Amino acid sequence: MALKRFTSAAVLTTLLTASAAVATAVPAAAGQSGQAGQATAQRAAVSSAEQQDVVKYWTKDRMRNAIPIESKYSLKLSKSQAQALKKKPMAGSAATQQTPQPRMGKVFFTLGGADYVCSGTATNSTNGSVVTTAGHCVNEGPGAYATKFAFVPAYLNGNAPYGTWTARALVTTNAWKNSGDFNYDVGFAIMNTNGGKTLTGAVGGYPIAFNQARGGSYTAYGYPAASPFNGQTFWSCQGTVMNDTYGGSNDQGLPCNMTGGSSGGGWIKNGNLNSVNSFGYTAIRDVMWGPYFGSTIQSTYTTAANS
């Protein structure tokens, strides 16, 4: 069974201290150790000229024409797993259109000379400047880092009511950056100030939670861009998540029919950001999967929050 990202195909992103912004509970689930070593931030648009170039680049036309990023990865199931899946299909859930909210928005970036879209969430942090998204929205996993990374809070039909925010640095887990491990498909962008304000100082942010009990009810958000959606409006799905028993990942799945472009959109549980739209299985219709936010992802977030 092939695996796909939530980027091109169906399935399905207030200034506080880090201690106030992060919730923790039970010990991390097995399989969250990741690859050794502290994640490091990749420089993006730092100088005033670099920031201006990014803002000028993302015209309304470029934003409208940017596409969900394609996946290069596949995940095989055993014959017994595939047969079990055929006997027990999973039902999807229809996404509901929402009024855009300033703490969530659309992500734009370039890779290999092409313009791409994802979704993201303004996240409470020490620096007040973090956007949480999918790892494959900041790095090819493995491969190059994104360039011209921008975040548009509350994007709607080409409009940017809170402006276009540029990234000064990007960071993802070593496990994603080095080997494309979907258990750790999470990325963080550290944004420049805009009009003298930090991102969460201007639009607010979600607290982020790690090492929480698995299961429960989540609401996932994003800007799906592949048919039948057009990427210009904001959508959500709500439901109870399940463990991935199909391909061996440590992720959780949420029934939802959001499509490519929703990658990186935030999963909210009990008011906290606790996962992102990451990938889907081609043989499982209308279910999106998101990584478990354990200690490795928490460490990567801490790097971003303190950068």
Automatic annotation (TrEMBL):
* Cleaved signal peptide residues: 1-23
Which top-rank group of organisms is this from?
Answer: Bacteria
Q: Which InterPro entries match?
A: Glutamyl_endopeptidase, Peptidase_S1_PA, Peptidase_S1_PA_chymotrypsin
Entry keyword set: Signal
Q: Which SUPFAM superfamilies match?
A: Trypsin-like serine proteases
Query: Does the keyword section mention Signal?
Result: yes
Q: Could you tell me which PANTHER family the record lists for this protein? A: PEPTIDASE S1 DOMAIN-CONTAINING PROTEIN, SERINE PROTEASE
Name assigned to this protein = V8-like Glu-specific endopeptidase
